[in-house]
Amino acid sequence: MKTTIRTIGNHVGEEVTLGAWLSNKRSSGKIAFLQLRDGSGFIQGVVVKAEAGEEAFQKIKELTQESALYVTGTVQKDDRAPSGYELAVSSVDVIHEAVDYPITPKEHGTEFLMDHRHLWLRSRRQHAIMTIRNEIIRATYEFFNKEGFVKVDPPILTGSSAEGTTNLFHTKYFDEDAYLSQSGQLYMEAAAMALGRVFSFGPTFRAEKSKTRRHLIEFWMIEPEMAFVDHEESLEIQENYVSFVVQSVIDNCRLELDALERDITALEKIKAPFARISYDDAIAFLQKEGYEIEWGEDFGAPHETAIAESFDKPVFILNYPKDIKAFYMKPHPERDDVVLCADLIAPEGYGEIIGGSQRIDDEALLAERFKEHNLSEDAYQWYLDLRKYGSVPHSGFGLGLERTVAWITGTEHVRETIPFPRLLNRLYP
């Protein structure tokens, strides 16, 4: 019977066949231990010389790392094994013998591993991170589908910037200028006016020459937009969403969290509601702690980390100065110097994972913002139309997938949280 490692627990006491790769092995004179992986998980195969025979045992001892195999054996329960099972191997058929696999069990430098990213993905640690990434995506779809959101796909090629910045990748669109999307938000606002509550999930691009552990050139965003939803309701949706995703990972990825040696007790605390502090209070806190920062300045990684250390759950920082936020954010009803927005800061030094706001719904005010930010009304006329024809209060946010994966998995650098990272100095492989 052919099966997979992930479902092998359904076949205790039965003989099964796995298609697998040999990730590692060790042997004595009488027993060989094969570390097998098939993409769905890892398991140990045990070969006993007295049962396999001299010739077969010798061939198994000579198997090379990452050779592709068909392995047949009996499934046995083993509480010492991470998966709870092992395979008593009766036969091994070689599909393909790998020669001189470059990533050996010894230590390798980061650049070497990044040059061999196409192979590094096979390691137990990278497998665990990618599996948890997939669970976060799966849980995202489940959450928003249950909450009545419609999935909408905004364009990747755009004629203008979502946030009025110059950090865009330029290309030619026949005889016009075009840019790789830095956010699908503006298009999602249009979709929300048609479908009520929508979300997108797709790649975004920022031509920022940043080398920090939190930044990628190409990354993936989850961007919901909601008609008839004010800022307060949006915050509640955000904290419920993050709580749901974290709980789904705990429930469905325990083996992977264990492989990463992640402190699950820290994740178990992630339940709504989350703490909220104002930008004003955050500045006062940082100044009291000795940071040289003035009101009106944006927060850097050290500032966000210092604030997060006061909490064991994510924390919202509310109402930033309008001069350091995007043109589309709605002013605070009681102050003209701040806007109705929030950044959600993850615990343990992982920084901002969500940015969100209530959007301007007044046509005249938005037109005024266009002028203040030197934005072309021609390029943004369609966006202004959303306020001209049936405008309503609406809010939205964007969650950066890779930063969220880094936080939940406890991974230090975001380059390990995406299959093939695009960094300032890396476009290969």
Automatic annotation (TrEMBL):
<comment type="similarity">
    <text>Belongs to the class-II aminoacyl-tRNA synthetase family.</text>
</comment>
<dbReference type="InterPro" id="IPR006195">
    <property type="entry name" value="aa-tRNA-synth_II"/>
</dbReference>
<dbReference type="InterPro" id="IPR045864">
    <property type="entry name" value="aa-tRNA-synth_II/BPL/LPL"/>
</dbReference>
<dbReference type="GO" id="GO:0016740">
    <property type="term" value="F:transferase activity"/>
</dbReference>
<keyword id="KW-0030">Aminoacyl-tRNA synthetase</keyword>
<dbReference type="GO" id="GO:0004816">
    <property type="term" value="F:asparagine-tRNA ligase activity"/>
</dbReference>
<protein>
    <recommendedName>
        <fullName>Asparagine--tRNA ligase</fullName>
        <ecNumber>6.1.1.22</ecNumber>
    </recommendedName>
</protein>
<dbReference type="GO" id="GO:0005524">
    <property type="term" value="F:ATP binding"/>
</dbReference>
<keyword id="KW-0648">Protein biosynthesis</keyword>
<keyword id="KW-0963">Cytoplasm</keyword>
<feature type="domain" description="Aminoacyl-transfer RNA synthetases class-II family profile">
    <location>
        <begin position="132"/>
        <end position="429"/>
    </location>
</feature>
<dbReference type="GO" id="GO:0005737">
    <property type="term" value="C:cytoplasm"/>
</dbReference>
<dbReference type="InterPro" id="IPR012340">
    <property type="entry name" value="NA-bd_OB-fold"/>
</dbReference>
<dbReference type="InterPro" id="IPR004365">
    <property type="entry name" value="NA-bd_OB_tRNA"/>
</dbReference>
<keyword id="KW-0547">Nucleotide-binding</keyword>
<dbReference type="InterPro" id="IPR004364">
    <property type="entry name" value="Aa-tRNA-synt_II"/>
</dbReference>
<keyword id="KW-0067">ATP-binding</keyword>
<dbReference type="GO" id="GO:0003676">
    <property type="term" value="F:nucleic acid binding"/>
</dbReference>
<comment type="subunit">
    <text>Homodimer.</text>
</comment>
<dbReference type="InterPro" id="IPR004522">
    <property type="entry name" value="Asn-tRNA-ligase"/>
</dbReference>
<dbReference type="GO" id="GO:0140096">
    <property type="term" value="F:catalytic activity, acting on a protein"/>
</dbReference>
<dbReference type="Pfam" id="PF00152">
    <property type="entry name" value="tRNA-synt_2"/>
</dbReference>
<dbReference type="Pfam" id="PF01336">
    <property type="entry name" value="tRNA_anti-codon"/>
</dbReference>
<dbReference type="GO" id="GO:0006421">
    <property type="term" value="P:asparaginyl-tRNA aminoacylation"/>
</dbReference>
<keyword id="KW-0436">Ligase</keyword>
<dbReference type="InterPro" id="IPR002312">
    <property type="entry name" value="Asp/Asn-tRNA-synth_IIb"/>
</dbReference>
